[in-house]
Specification:
The chain has helices at 21-31, 46-51; strands at 15-18, 40-42, 58-65, 69-78. By secondary structure, it is α+β, with helices and mostly antiparallel strands. The chain has one domain (13-78): Alpha-Beta Complex (Eukaryotic RPB6 RNA polymerase subunit). The longest helix has 11 residues, at 21-31.
């Protein structure tokens, strides 16, 4: 008997969301950036796999912060290089 673990249910894992094309376009316009400017996250990261994201998706990560209240960060999903 194997229960599937949802990593997003853990208190220490922030909310991960796949952004729509419109949201990504708005993000890039607002900050005058491209995908090259975004930090990367691997496609096989447990949170990325849980939300069903694929390479080239942009992920919004929302953290609760004592100082900022709510902090958003963004990551580009990339394939892990083969060894």
């Amino acid at each position: 008997m194997s229960a599937k673990l949802n990593v997003l249910d853990h208190d220490m894992v922030p909310d991960h969301q796949i952004m729509s094309e419109d949201e990504v376009s708005e993000l890039f316009t607002k900050y005058n950036i491209t995908t090259d400017h975004l930090p990367k996250i691997y496609h096989d990261d447990p949170a990325v796999k849980t939300i069903g994201a694929e390479a080239d998706n942009v992920i919004r990560i929302i953290r609760e912060s004592h100082t900022a209240g709510r902090a958003e960060s963004y990551r580009l999903v990339v394939k892990r290089p083969k060894k």
